[in-house]
Amino acid sequence: MKALYYDGTLSIREVPEPSPAPGEALIRVLIAGICNTDLEIIRGYMGFQGILGHEFVGIVEKAANPYLLGKRVVGEINCPCGNCRFCRMEMPGHCPERSVLGISGRPGAFAEYLCLPEANLHLVPDSVSDDAASFTEPLAAAFRIIDQLSPSSEDQIIVLGDGKLAQLITQTMWLHSKHTVCLGKHDWKLSLLRDLGISTQHFGTYQGDMADVVIEATGRPEGLNHALRLIRPEGTIILKTTCHDNSSFDAARAVVNEIRIQGSRCGPFRPALEALALGTVEVHPLITEVFSLEEGLQAFERAARPETMKILLQL
Ligand SMILES: [Zn+2]
Ligand SMILES: [Zn+2]
Fold first, then answer.
1. DSSP characters for 62-111?
2. Which end of the chain is more exposed for a tag (fewer CB within 10 A), N or C?
3. Confidence category of residue 245, pLDDT binned at 50, 70, 90
4. Please, which pLDDT band fits residue 242 given cuts at 50, 70 and 90?
């Protein structure tokens, strides 16, 4: 099969079709999305080599569970061992033995086929298009914040950043509090949110109260320091940015103002699929362009450009 492979350089390669281990399904990929994590991996993050890609929708072609056969699915990307202390504590996303689809120890979704444990799969409702379904994984990362915070409708929430993930987060937070505002630097990106009736402001000219919650999704090392200037005393900062280089931050400010800083990563697929099915989160405006797998190198070039939002690969 064809795959987009990274081993220090990106290339389209012919590789053997994967064969599922016990408990795993074989999935034929329909659409896969390029994420900032993929761009960070090709700059050295995680030290991963192999088939990239972790945001996908596909059709189950082989599975032990006959109910799954022929079904359209999305899949959670963490594959835990099931036996360790963290797995027993129901923290499979933190299993030290885990593999992660297209990120660590497991070939990813930029290929004709992939394998994942059947337990990781979720059926996609018929009302969700393939394009939209490919956003389930990053949208689930937005819903992780709801699990962590249980925001109230009175909470003043600032989302810092106007990229793909920041936009999904802003839409998700808006469902919970209309006192949500997205602060960004690109008017055309902010306008995608304004078209949905969501409040935005330019980062440089923001005039407003300090927020109860600041969600840092800039993808930039300096994002945390900006967040520290926007959060109220005893407020919570949610950190979504994983930068490939380490950044320093104003720790004294966090101490004096007794700020809670909470990391946040992968999230629950079910509410993400529900939001896509109900149309309460709108992902189509985020799609910049769709490429074929053969055009994968061009697709990555395009994804890295600042004027781009989501790039999808069609298999
Ligand atoms: Zn991702
Ligand atoms: Zn484990």
1. E-SSGGGTT-EEEE-SEE--SSSHHHHTT-GGG-TT-EEETTBEE--SSB
2. N
3. low
4. confident
CATH number of 2-135+283-314: 3.90.180.10
**Nearest ligand to the C-alpha of residue 266?**
1
- Measure 108 CA to ligand 1 centroid, in angstroms: 11
Q: Nearest ligand, CA of residue 138? A: 1
* C-alpha atoms less than 13 angstroms from C-alpha of 1 in its C-beta half-sphere: 20
pLDDT, one tens digit per residue, over 117-144 is 999 999 999 999 999 999 999 999 999 9
Distance 117 CA to ligand 2 centre (A): 14
Assess if CATH 3.40.50.720 describes domain 143-263.
Answer: yes
- Between the CA of 54 and the centroid of ligand 1 the distance, in Å, is 6
Span(s) in the chain for CATH 3.90.180.10: 2-135+283-314
- From the CA of 90, the nearest ligand is 2
